[in-house]
Amino acid sequence: MPPRLQLLPFQWQRPSTLSTILTSFLHPQSRNAHILASLSDTPGAYNKRIRRGRGPASGKGKTSGRGHKGQKQHGKVPAGFNGGQTPDIVVHGERGGVNVHATDLAPINLDRIQSWIDQGRIDATRPITVRELTQSRCIHQPKEGVKLLGRGVEKDDHEIPISSVLKQPIHLVVSRASSAAIAAVEAAGGSVTTRFYTKSAIARIMRREMHPFVSMQWNKESASAGLLGTETGEQGALTEAMVMREMGFKYRLPDPTKRRDIEYYRDPAHRGYLSHLLKPLEGPSLFFRSPVERKSAAGVKKEKILPENRLW
Amino acid sequence: MRPSLRLLNLEVPGSRALYVCSICRQEARPRPIVARQFLRHASSNADSLSERVRRKLWGTDNPPGLKDPYGESLLEKRFGKPKPQEPEEPQVEETNELAEPSDGLEPGVSYEPATTWHGLERVGHLGRWKDAPPSEADTYGSFAPKHKLYKKGPLSLAAHQAAVEISLMQALNRPLTHVCKVVEHDKPIFKLIWKTKVLPTSPNWGESLKFHNENAKKVLFYVFEQIGGTQPEAAEQEQAVEDIEVEEFENFEIVEDPSPPAPNPRFFGYTEPRFKSATSLPLTDPAIKFAFLKRFSQLSGHYFPDNIVSQITNVKHAMQYIQGQLHPKPTKLAEQLENDKQLQTLSNVKVFSKRQTTLHRDDEKGRRKLIESELRARGLLE
Amino acid sequence: MPGSDAFRALKWLSRSSGGLLSGAETTTQRCLAKPLSRSMATEAQSPIDNLTREVPKPVWNPEPVKATTYSFPSMEPLRFVEYPRNHLLMPLRKDILHRAVVYEGDMTRQGTASTKWRDDVHGSGRKLYAQKGTGRARVGDKKSPIRRGGGVAFGPHPRDFSTGLPQKIYDQAWRIALSYRYKRGQLIIVDNEITLPEDATPHLITEIFKANRWGRPFGRSTLITDQPNESLFETVRQVGEHAKILDRRDVDVKDLLETGRLIIEKQALDRILSQHSKDLKNKPAKALY
Fold it and tell me: B201: closest CA among B312, B275, B311, B280?
C-alpha cells in the first residue's frame, strides 16, 4: 500500500463522528412542530372575502350587488353627478366650513376637578394648571388651552347658583373660564386666573421646559394672593426673571400679541392676568373707551360755567 | 498516423478531389503557438519565456545580444514560471503567525522547493477558523461533568450523596450550596457518606441523618465544617482530616497512592447506595431544593429546567425526571404500542412494528417455501 | 422546631397545590381535618361552628414564578429568582403572538420596490405616426405601457407597509412569548454578562454548545445580551449553524419564538419585561409636583 498523505495532523482534525452519533442516540432530538408555523389569529377575527359573481348560493351571484343596467352597473359615476342636471353644488353653492381662526380648547368642568381631587389625583392645596390637569388625565389632551366650565353648579329656578360641588378652595390657572365657573370657585374661597397659552407653549410646559403660568407680563397683582401664596409661600413675588433663574427653565412663556387676546386677558370679568394693567375707569378694550370713561370724560368737557344772569 | 496529419496529407496537389477548407487545414496544422508550448514545458525552470522566444527567433541556442533585453514581459508575468522564492513567502508568513515561528527561512540556508507534501507542516489554504487549532483561552470549565450518569444505580448514589451532604450542611448551619465547591470527596469520606442513612422523618434535613457510628458523625461534621472556607486552607485541612482518618479507621484499607493522579472510577466503584431512603426526602424548602438540585446536577450532569423545578417536590421526582429524560416516550405509535404491557397480555391482540402483508402470513404458515419451490420448478425464479 | 416546620411545609404545600384558600386559619383546619376532605365540606358538617366562626374570605394569592439563574460559561446554577406570574406564566395566546409577528413583519418590510409609470419614463410624448391612413393600429407615444420600453401600468411604488397594533397587545405578546419559553424549560437566564475571554475563538463556543446541548442537533439557541459586544457577536456569528446572538434592542417577538431555546442575560430579561408591561399598570395617573 502506498504511503497515505495525511492532510491535517491528528490534533487538528474534527472529532470523530462516533461519539456524536452515540450522544444523539442517547438523547434523541426533541424537535417539535415549530410554534411559528402554527400561529394564527382566531377565525372570527377575519372576514371572508366576498366572491362576487360566483353563483346564486353566494348571495352576490347574478348582478354582483350592482343592480340592473346603466352606468352604475358597468363602471363608475362621478361624485356629485346629477344625471346631467346642473349639480347641487353649482345651483346652491358650497355650504359650511371650518373656522381656521378658532382656538381649540379642552373643556374641563368643576365636577370633574372635584372628583379628581377626591381621588387624590390632584392636590387642591397647590395651583391647578394645564400641567396638573393633563398629567392626571383630567383632560385627555390639552389642545390649545383649557376652558373651565361650570358643570356641577346647582341653580335655582331663576338661574341663580345655590351651591356647587366644590368642597374646598382651589386655585386654577386656565386659558378661559365661564362666569358660572368663576362664581362657583370664588364662592368656595378659591380663585380663577385666566392666562394666555399657545399650543407649543403647552407642549413645553408638559416637558417642564417652561413655567406653567409666570411670564414676562406676569406680576404680583396678576393673580390672587391665594394662588401665589400656595406657590411661593411668604415671599409672594414671583417674577419671570426669578423663575427662569431658579427653576432652570429653558424657555419663556409667551404673552399675547393679538389685540383680541390682550383684550380678553385685560378684562377683570374674565379674571385675566393682565387686568391689573387697567387704570381706574378704563375698559379692557384697546380701541374703544369704556362707557364710564367716555361719560366721565364727556362730563368734564361739557361742564360750563354760566354767568349769573343766564338760566341756561 | 494522427488524424491531424492525415488531414494535412489531403493538401497534396494530386488529390484535389477532396477539398478541405482553409480553416480546417489551419486547425489541423500543428501549432507553433508560443504560450501554449511554453505552458507544456512549464515544469522546466531552466530558462524564461522571453529567452526561449529569442532562441527561436535566432535559431540558435546562444543568441547574441542581451539576455533579457526588454525586462520581464507581461506574458512572462502571466504565464511564466515564478521565481523560486516568491510562492513560499506568504506560506512562511502564515506559518509564522499560526504555528512555530522557527520554521522561517534562515538567510544562509538555500531553499529547496518541495515536490511532495511529505514533511510539510500543512498543505493548502487555512483561512477558516476550523482549520486553526483552539487557543489557550478555549478551554471550557463546565459545572456539570463531561460524562453524565445514565444508569439508575449511580443516579441514586448521586442523589444519596447530595442528600447527605446538604443535610450535613443544614445540621452545621452553614451555607448549603458550599458543598458544590468540592467536586469529589476522598474515598474514606465518601465511604462514610455511603454508610450514612437519611431518614425522611422531618422536613428539616439537618435532623434526618442517622450516622453509622459516633466517630463517623464526628469526622463528617469536622470535614463539612471546613468546606467553603478559604480554598487552599480547606484543602490543607482536608489533608489533615484524611490523616486523622487514616489513623482512626485503619480497617478501611485505604489505598493511598499519591503519585499517580489516576482518574478514580465514579463513586470509587460503588454502584448502588446502601440506603434508598433518601428518595422520599421532601424538597419543599426553596433553599434546600435549590442546593440539592444544584449538587445533584453537579454529580449527575443533568440540569433541571425551570418548569420541572417547580414540579419537583421530593428527591424521587428529580430522579424520575432524569430517567424520563433518558427513556423518552417513543415518537412512533407502533413502538409505543409494542411497549404497552397491557396490550401484550391480551391473547387476542398482536402488535407488529410493520404492516403485515400476505407475504408475512405465508411466511408464518410455511407456505412461502412451497410457493418458492414451485416457482423454481417452473423456472420462474432463479 | 419540628412542629412549626411541619406546619410551614404543609402551608407551603397547600399553597403550591393551587389552593384558593390561604391564611392561617384554613391551613390549620386542613391539617387537622382528614387530608383529602375539603375545608368547605367540614364547615358544612358543623353548623354551630359555622355560626361562631367568621367565614374566611377566599384570596387569590398565587406564588410568583421561580426561575434558576446560571453563571454564563460554566452554567453553574446560582440562585432562584422570582418573577410575577403575569410576566413568565402567561397563558399561551397564539392569536396575539400571530398579530405581533405579523405586525413586526409588516414593519420590517422595506417597501422600496419602484417602477416607472409612463410619465416617469424618459422620452418624448410625440405621436408615433398618424392617427389614420397607415393601416396600423392607432398609437400615442412610445412610453405607453402596452409597448416595449414603455412604462409599467400597475407596478410597485415605494410605500410604507407598516400596520398598527395596540401597544398593550404588543406588550402582552412579548410576555406570552417569554412565558411560552419558560413553560417549556427553554428560557435559560444568565445572572452575569454573556462574555468570552479575550482571545477566545469559535472553538470555545462550539465546546460550550456541545457540552450543554444547545447546538444544531438540539434546535439551535439564541443568545440575548443586554448591550452589544462586537467581538463576542463576531465570534458567535462564525458558528451560526448552532447559535444566533442578538442584543436587547435588536430582539423581536419572532426572535423569541424562533430557535430551540433562549439564553438571556437577567438584566436584558428584566428590561424587556419592564418595558413591555404597560398593560399591567392599573394605577390611575396622578399629577406630579
Answer: B280
pLDDT level of residue B237 (50, 70, 90 thresholds): very low
Contact A41 C95 (CB under 8 A): yes
Question: Taking the mean position of all CA atoms in its chain, how far away is CA C123?
Answer: 53
Angle subtended at Cα B248 by Cα B246 and Cα B254, rounded to the nearest 5 degrees: 30
Q: What ipTM describes this predicted complex?
A: 0.73
Residues 22-81 of B with CB under 8 A from A: none
Cβ pair C45, C235 in contact under 8 A: no
Q: Kindly list the distances between the CA atom of residue A192 and the CA atoms of A28, A108, A125, A147, B331, in Å, as whole numbers in the listed order.
A: 77, 13, 14, 11, 77
For residue range C48-96, list pLDDT tens digits in order: 555 556 777 888 888 899 999 999 889 999 999 999 999 999 999 999 9
Q: Cβ of C208 and B140 within 8 Å?
A: yes
**CATH tag for C65-108+164-280 (out of 3.90.1570.10, 3.40.1370.10, 3.40.50.2300, 3.30.70.100):** 3.40.1370.10
In tens, the pLDDT along A184-243 reads 999 999 999 999 999 999 999 999 999 999 999 998 888 887 787 655 544 556 788 888
Domain assignments of chain C as residue spans, ordered by start: 2-52, 65-108+164-280, 118-160
Task: Write the CATH number for A114.
Answer: 3.100.10.10
> pLDDT tens digits, residue range B256-271?
444 444 556 777 777 7
Distance CA B5, CA B29 (A): 8
Q: What is the number of CB-based contacts under 8 A between chain B and chain C?
A: 98
Question: Which chains would you list as touching B if contact means 3+ CB atom pairs under 8 Å?
Answer: A, C
Nearest to C81 by CA among C194, C177, C182: C182
Which grid coordinates are listed for B38? 511554453
What value does the mean pLDDT take over residues B314-320?
86
